[in-house]
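## Example record

The block below lists the input lines for one assembly entry, exactly as stored, with component labels intact.
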Amino acid sequence: MSHDSHNHSHGHDHSHGGHELPFWRKYIFSTDHKVIGLQYGITAVFFLLFGFSLMLLMRWQLAFPKQAIPLIGKLFTEDGVLSPELYNQFGAMHGTIMVFLGVVPLAVGAFGNYLVPLQVGAHDMAFPKLNMMSYWVYFVGGIVMLLSFMTPTGAAASGWTSYPPLSVVNGPGEGFWGGLFTGQSMWLLGMVFLITSSLLGSVNTIVTAIQLRVKGLSFMRWPVLVWAQVTTAFLLLLAFPPLEAAGIMQLMDRVGGTSFFMPSGLVVSGEAWKASGGGNPILWQHLFWFLAHPEVYVLILPAVGIVGEIIAVNTKKPLYGYKTLVYSMLFLGFMSFIVWAHHMFMTGMGVTMSTFFQATTMIISVPSVIILTTYLLTLWGASIRYTVPMLFATAFLPMFAIGGLTGLPLGLTASDIHLHDTYYVIGHFHYVVAPGTLFALMAGVYHWYPKISGRFMSDTLGKIHFWLSVIAINGVFMPMFFMGMAGVSRRLYDQTVYAHGLAAQPLNVIMSVSAWILAIAQLPFLYNMATSWKWGKKAESNNPWGATTLEWAASSPPPHENFTTPVEVYRAPYEYSSNKKLLPQFVQEA
Amino acid sequence: MEQPKYGFWLPPNISTHGAEIDNLISTLHWFMAVLFIGWGLYLVYCLFKFRERPGHEADVTGNAHFVLPKYIEIGIIIIEACLLIFFSAPIWARVKQDFPKESEALVVKVTAEQFAWTIHYPGRDGKFGQLKNELIDGTNPTGLDRNDPNGVDDIISPNFLNIPVNKKIIVQLSAKDVIHNFFLPVMRVKQDAIPGMTIPLWFEATQTGKFEIACAQLCGVGHTQMRGFFNVMTQEEYDAWYNEEEKSLLGDAATATEPTGENK
Amino acid sequence: MSALIPYIDEPHPVTGVTNAKLGMWLFLASEVMLFGALFSTLIIMRTSATDWPAHGSDVLNVPLATLNTVFLITSSVTIVLSWAALKMKDLKKFKFNMGLTILLSFGFLVIKYIEYTSKFHHGHFPSTSTFYAVYFTLTGLHGLHVIGGIITNLYLIGPGSKMWEKEPERFTGRIECAGLYWHFVDLVWIFLFPALYLL
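Predicted structure tokens for the full assembly:
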């Protein structure tokens, strides 16, 4: 297929003669990591918007319970009121889509794919075909998830955590095929696809980062983002398989009549449950959280990497404590495997177990604090250039701090008694993921846009986007802490049923209005992203921000094989020259 | 009985152990506030002081850094360790492990199902009748066997948990179908109700009043509707209610046992 | 151009492995976690079970499973021999040994099929008890891994072996990776056999 001078190459048939390829090989079934990164990015943004829309609809029901959704309500139900069935489906799918189809593919699939090979000076990923497969398997997983809305009983409705027995007894369907074509079963199938995709992706990232390093790039010269992506890849590689096992077992419970998670003596809606029993519903929670806690760090570490790069560039000084930062990330990754049961304090855990898990939880807060501190200290003595990416990166710091700090009362068992499964939890992890990770990802989009397209995004629109978002997003999530304190459980269709819920109801109105403003605030961003591709201000050089890492040595956008001239690394990623200016890794000091 | 006041912060606490939990929660939030405001002031100062402007150069050597953060970090670790060792773990042990003697307490069974709570009092003999799944029907939600001598005087109270004030209560919590969570906001009591397991918990109320049982774990389409009632009464009121229930039960006892006999 | 993606056929000077081999080790690490979760399930199911055979041999066919163990161990030996043959530049011997490996793995599947159908005949299905649920899920997933291995090996003995002419080093590397995977599948069985059939 490559008809140019590849005959003395190894005959591996991924072509590198970019422009000779037909359209479908170049843009659809491409093996170029940059195209795949963009495919991941575009698909993930679509899913983020879709998952966000589900929540915007749910927010109407929460703010104005049992009132018809204006204009579009009739599309969903006859009277226009969001039914509790749909509410539960939307809730479960919001979580699933945002985490597994939105944030992770954007943070790992898009940014990791695009930047890791560039930052280590590679021409492509180590396994370009596996890379392409990884994207398409993810795509199929996403389609399966979307199709689950079409099943007779609708999509999965047991929360993104899918706790059995609820997830097994919910709309079980008749027979094998009937059981398979139900929301929850499709959810499980979709997860198997997504897990396979992330397995392929993480193997690729690790091998690329380790094996394809360019000359001079020792491990301690890796940019923070590469460290973050490699740690993340290890988490994905090792934490996802237990969920795959659990998913297969839950699927067996649903369509094969087994009882992995179904205890004996179940009576569902007055009928004895038909399976043999003898299973253990807590087993699912262990296997699920064994994945899902590292998953939290999968969400946050790439963001930490992106923010690190942007802060280093825009403070115009080296990152403070690079080595400490790297070791903290590795320690964080390791610790994330032994904290999972802090999600399960209410399952009747004894004192020994709960003390162990709250101790590990307190320990894991230390590297998080160190990471945050190194970034804050980098600001000292800086000369901060307030570009739009820098605005988002600075906003990340206090938002991530709130998300992290509010983890304390949840991680300690005694205070968790009151706060467990309330809105406090929702506030906590959304501060980490939404104004935390998503702000970092937006910062990344603004920051690397000139590299990807050769043009800048509009500054004015970017600033409008930033200020509206930062105000609205706090309006959405800050009230959740108060609501959680008041004892309002999460996942309630209508909290006004309860006296304490009714008292806190005004907060729901504030949150919903803020959420809708937040949605509007994303319009300038989307417009900006779309139009700047063609009409944005041209980036005058390969390295318009004065950055130090290797991707800025390539032209913008980088050609098919990334680097047309050989590159070499001469120093650590964030070092300065004798004239006290930051010096790129790839420039030899005269 | 006065109506509880609910707002945007912790609901009133009427349990003997709740004050400790509330104290821990507020201590934690003061600690978080101090840290956040400290970080925040530093951040705002940096963002202003070290902004890009003519004549200002970044200090790339990093020689001007202070050592304060190390002490702060060590301080944070020590405070966290103290909170864990001296507050959280002991409170948890007291709440979840130091059970009162059954002879001094009122023991009740609470069984959760989609979407209701069944409260089961053992009766004057203090012994629960056997529960048999095959006896479950619309009028007998937990399948209580009235033919069991222990079960004759048992009282079943759907959705109403009535307890006397100032008395230790032990709840044996279970579920029939899916995982629920037994949450008494004013009592600072929260525990998963898991099918196939019976998990005990205890508490003691210090005030009378009418409160709610909430379900805190997504349990299906009627999760919101799974609201129970939690009434704390004076001992006299409780006794009066109990005698009333007992009278209506044992008066009907002869007819009540027959249908269960037929089911066999 | 040959260095476009380096370390395809020669090991990296620092890590000492080729890309494919590092990738295979990472993949196997992931597989260890997958089967680790399943084995944990086995332990938890067994300790809490009310309906579990005292010994697996009471309900499962140990002689057949022993034969299967022999098949798999032998196939692990033959796949190493096939790799060694390539190291000696002997493609014929490679094909012979690889063919044996594939035959043995087919034999494994046939016996597995006999075991499964006899269970079904006696009315033992995954839904019968948690023991059978664990038995069918674990051996079934292992069986899928065997099938995956057969497909890979069939490709490598058939159309895939064309690579030998142009890139013998790379092809040998592929066989080595296939061997690593096959050893892993074998190893899982070595754990499954006592855990399900004997204990």
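Chain C touches chain A through 46 residues (CB under 8 Å). The helical segments of chain C are 19-48, 62-87, 91-121, 130-157, 163-166, 168-198.
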